[in-house]
Amino acid sequence: MEVKIGVQYAPRELVLESKLSPKDLSDTIEQAVKDGGVLRLEDEKGRQVMVPVEKIAYIEVAATNVRSVGFTVDA
């Protein structure tokens, strides 16, 4: 799953690929917001991203797109 996190006063958003299921990802985000601490997520390569919940502007979760390569010819 692709996760985009907008951080207050930051010019760019954080983007990472998470190996969590949509349900687990949603639960992790909701629990961090409820606790008011730090949102901790790990990407597919094992890197960790930690963002203080009070600095989060938005979070966007989307399915990873598989890009096709090449050209198609319509008959």
UniProtKB/TrEMBL annotation:
It comes from the Bacteria. Pfam families: DUF3107. InterPro entries: DUF3107 (IPR021456). This is ATP-binding protein. It comes from Glycomyces sambucus.
